[in-house]
Amino acid sequence: MLMTNTEEIPGKRTTAFHGVVSGSTVRAKHVGRDLMASFKNIFGGELKGYTELLQESREQAIERMISQAEQMGANAVVNLRFSTSSVAAGAAELYVYGTAVTVE
Questions:
Q1: How does pLDDT run across 19-49, given as a tens digit for each residue?
Q2: Domain segments of the chain: what residues?
Q3: pLDDT tens digit sequence for 56-71
Q4: Where are the transmembrane segments (predicted)?
Q5: In the CATH scheme, what architecture does the domain 2-28+58-103 have?
Q6: CA-derived radius of gyration, the chain
């Protein structure tokens, strides 16, 4: 599955539009990660626990979006975008969306 944040894929011709596809996941903070993040807030540095959490969330949301695009018969997703929102205290949604297309 080709994916891009541009409207077209250079060197490819779009032959069909299948519509908007999306994937999302809602993740909560882990108590251990939250505790370590509290220490990092004091001393500074990368919050590796949260970095891993966000990376896992992006991967899962993309997998779900690709699954939807494949069910629609697409072989590419263009105009890919990410969005996040807080849905509850300590939990956030990561949302990815784009346009499913067929390219040659």
A1: 999 999 998 877 776 666 676 777 788 878 8
A2: 2-28+58-103
A3: 999 999 999 999 999 9
A4: none
A5: 2-Layer Sandwich (3.30)
A6: 17
